[in-house]
Structure formats: structure tokens, C-alpha cells
């Protein structure tokens, strides 16, 4: 079977079988970060690789933005476990003709994101490469020993998401088309704001499961449901889909919200009696709205969309982004 | 100034200025690993990027060997701080046409090295890329809070190295030339054995400074001396240079030992009254010989080679490997 038939997630399943079983209390492959037991407590450990031509295009991505984003996407993974990002290592693969000033701008962007969230780049590696590669590994601390995994959602829980969905995908579509992108949409793609502060508030309200929305809500909520052995039902009109008024983009906001990717919002589940209070606390303390968009069901693996209570087909198969299939 | 004029180490100096100053008790850029303070103690954190065509050539590198080496080079950095490697994350950039079996073999090689040294791959990331990239980040534990840095060498200390120097470079030269490589030389290049056990013994004997030999002894001892503000004098006949008898390679073993690179031996300094005992303990407990090859001097930045007590020119400038100059 080829890599394109196997797909990214098929490959990860195969590789997971080769890494062995984690000891009691650790969590390896399969969540937003690995969870490790260290002598003094629990650590969150995650890595993300950004490759030129796959994750970014330098035609419309400034080096400062790329640096910011490389830190932000890892910080988002730590936040999705209810943790606080602390230290990162950055390995760069660099084309030989690259201007040192370009790399300094990349580092300034990383530093800006680090400073905003109280973390730091503590080192890394640099090598020649034929395309720009930015590989970040990040350590975070959970709140005490408690981490918020993808598993844990129970039927009846409320499904919530922070912020807006689909804005990053709309921004990318405009940039790709070479059209002027509405500043908020371009920023959603180029300078995503990881929901670190929101996670710090949320964890006090004990969500039952949490994930960050990096591949589109349908895909990421699908991962959360699969890990929890449940399903979910989402109300189309309850989704905080991007408002495309005046954006000059002919796209379905609902489709972008469900399958667009790179929003780096948090999606979490929580018992319904605590949902409104958790949402209000996040909004009061961070200014970020939290939307109650659906319910967890006992129909394992089934993601259903309704509009005014009636079933509605999902606008696209909830496959999400696959590095080898797409 | 271009990257090729600035060079790898010039670039790192510029980027270091952009990452800020570490808090008390932490060490960021500039040693074999970063040293971090976590709630329960000290952590060692390191990353190494292996890029196809730069660090390895798949024409003579089996995927199992590449996987082994990706783990080994990071474990070597942790060992060089006197630490024990514990967990790694692996980010892979993969050409779309790659066979899944190739990646499984890569993972088997990583697992073999992990199993040998009691560590584990806890996760990572995978992406498309136009060349194979293996990016590893590794966490290790020091012995207590004590770490063995590059700085700390004092004039009069004895300079020691483990094992053999130049074998990996000899193996690479033979493989590159398409000639049958003596198995021990090929293995030195393809399956370097990080000196994890040796470091665990050594740290009980309190070396004054330590580094791993990844770029050639001249370069790495040069880094140690620079960090310590000292110089060193090495006896040519005391170096454990590779024996090329019957290897079919026309090369100077001394030059390979000093500038060959990728040996992943440990180079350390230690007060002379403890050197012989430390060397004997490592050899007794691990079987790896330790050679007393020279002395630390007060001539900061000066690396001198002698033969029978007479000055001998260094066979090559001690520049070591530079990713952008070479």
C-alpha cells in the first residue's frame, strides 16, 4: 500500500504500533501533546513541522509571521491540553542563499509570540536544506497533574468552541488568489492567536475533553469523538462561522467553519450544567467569545449537522487535511 | 553579509541575540543541550535536524540505520551534559512517493536505539516535504541538579576522550567512494553508539567540562575551550586515532581524528589527580577505553598539537563542519 492510499492518519497508526506502550500515567501518540511524567510532575511535550510549499508560501507569508505562527501552533497544542507553554526548541532547515536578515525576522516573529505568552526559545539546530523547514518542539506545564485529553466526552455534554471558525481558511483563499485580503482574515491565517489564556480560564471549569481546531472542526471534533467513543450533533446556525461580508470571497462560511482548518480555536466538551458558566468566564476574563454549538451523543463516530432541528448534510466529507492524500 | 560569509556559528550568534537572556539557573543556546528548570527539578532539552543530502545519503544509509542515528545523535548531546536521555519527539518530512515500509524501518531503527538506552519516542509530527527530513527533540534528566557544561575547564586539567576518533569519517569516505567499507568503520558512520552509559559513570567522577565530539575533536574541544576561557595542548601520539590498516583508505588517521566529525565520543576535562581513576572506572563498567590526550592551558582559545613534546601544526584548520560555509 502506498503512502497516498494509506494517508497521514493510517501512517501514524502504523508508526504508533512501532513505538511501544507508554508507562502508566503517560500519554504518547494520539492527543494534542504527549504527556510525560518527570521527577517533579507532569510535562506536556509537542512538536510541529512547518514545510515551505506545504504549510506556508513565502510569496505572501512574511518571515515575522512565519516565526509567530511556528510558535503559535505549538502553543495551541499545549493550550488544548489545558497547559501553559514554557520553552521551545527551533530546528531550521535553510536554503543556502537565504539572507541572514530573513532568519532574524523569523526569530523576531517567534520572539513576539513567545513574549506575548510568557515562553521562550531555548535553543535548537540549524542546517542547510533545499526548502525552508521550521521544526518546533515545545514543553508546557499542565495545571497541577490534571490534563485535558481528547477522550473524556460523555453523551449529553455540551460541545463548545472559542472565537471564530473559517477565518484562517478564508484568508488563505484570498491570499492564494492574489486578492487583497480583509485584514482580519489575512491575520487569522498569518498570525493565529493560540488560545493560551482561554485554556487557563477553562481548565478551572473542568472540560470533559478538549482539542484545538487545526484541521477544521469536523475533523478535529471527529478526533475528539473517536477518542471518547461518542458522537456529536452540531447546530449549523450555532456555529461561529466567519462573516464574509465584503470579503470578496465566494465561499460557504459553514463549509469553511467545518473543514477550513488552521483556526487554532479550542473545541471542548463539558457537562451542560457547567457550560454557560465556563463560557461566560472565558469571555469575561479574555474577551474571547465561547459558543455552545452542539451536544455529545452516544452514536459513536457519528458527526451530525442539523439546521433548525432538521438533519443537514455535512458540506464536505469530514476528512480534514491529510498530508499524503491531498 | 550573506549566510555563506556569516557561517553557521555566526548565524547562531545573531539568532541567540534575538532569543533573550535565560533566567537564573537555565542555560539556553551554546551547549550540547538547553538546561531548563521545571517545577520538580532540572531538565535537559535538545534537538537535531537530519536532512537528506546534507546529513545522510540514502544510497548507502539503510532506513533502520538512519532511525538509529537520529536518536543516537540526540542521546549523545544529553550524555554530554552528564544526563540520561528519556523521551523524544520525531517530526518527519516525507517525500510523497515514499514507501510506508521505509518509514516503518526508520521507526524500527529508532526503537532499537531507544530500547538500548531506555528511552522512548512519545510522538511527533509528519508532513510532506521534497526531501526526507528527520527532526528529533529529546528530553533528558541530569543526575540530580548537576549538569556538566562546556565551561568549567581549568588550566592544568587533563583532557580525555572516550573510544576512537576518526572511524565515522573513515567509514563515510569509503561509503562515499562506493568502496566496501570495513564493517567497524561503516558501523561507526551508520550506527554511532552514544556514550550514555559512559556518561553515567563519568558524572560520578565530576568532570570539570564535557562536550560530545560531533564536528571533530579540534572543533569540539575548541568550543569547550572557548566556553571555559582556556586553551588546550594535545599529544598527537596520545590520540585514539582510528587504525586504518587494511581499510583501503588513503587518509591521515590523525587528520580524521582531529577534524573528521560524527564520532559521538565524549571529550571531557578533569583535574589530573582524578583523571586516571575516572578513566579506569568508565573502562571497567562499560568496556569503553578512555584516553588521556592532553592538558588544559591558560592560553585562551589556543589549541596546540605536540608530538614527542615538540609543536606540530594542526593538520587542518580546526574549523569543523559549517553548514553554510562548506
Estimate the mean pLDDT confidence of chain A.
93
Question: In terms of per-residue confidence, which ranges of chain A show pLDDT below 50 for 5 or more consecutive residues?
Answer: none
Q: Give the biggest beta sheet of chain A.
A: 7 strands, mixed
Major beta sheet, strand line-up of chain A: 7-9-6-10-8-11-12
Protein chains sharing the most extensive interface = A-B, 73 and 73 residues
* Termini Cα gap of chain A: 16 Å
Tally of helical runs of chain A = 9
Quaternary status of these chains?
homodimer
List SSEs of chain A in N-to-C order: HEEHEHEEEHHHEHEHEHEEE
**Cα radius of gyration of chain A in angstroms:** 19 Å
How many E strands of chain A? 12
Describe the overall structure.
The structure is a homodimer. The first copy, chain A, has about 325 residues and is an alpha+beta fold. Chain A is about 35% helix and about 25% strand. Chain A is built from 9 helices and 12 strands. Chain A has helices at about 5-20, 65-80, 100-115, 165-175, 185-190, 195-200, 215-230, 255-260, 270-285; strands spanning about 35-40, 40-50, 85-95, 120-130, 135-140, 160, 210-215, 230-235, 265-270, 290-295, 305, 310. In chain A, strands 7-9-6-10-8-11-12 form a 7-stranded mixed beta sheet, sandwiched between helices. A 5-stranded mixed beta sheet of chain A has the order 1-2-5-3-4. In chain A, strand 3, helix 3 and strand 4 (about 120-130) form a beta-alpha-beta unit. In chain A, helix 2 runs parallel beside helix 3. The first copy, chain A, is globular. In chain A, about 55% of the residues are buried. The model of chain A has no long low-confidence stretch (mean pLDDT about 95). Chains A and B meet through helix 1, strand 1, strand 2, strand 3 and helix 3 of A and helix 1, strand 1, strand 2, strand 3 and helix 3 of B.
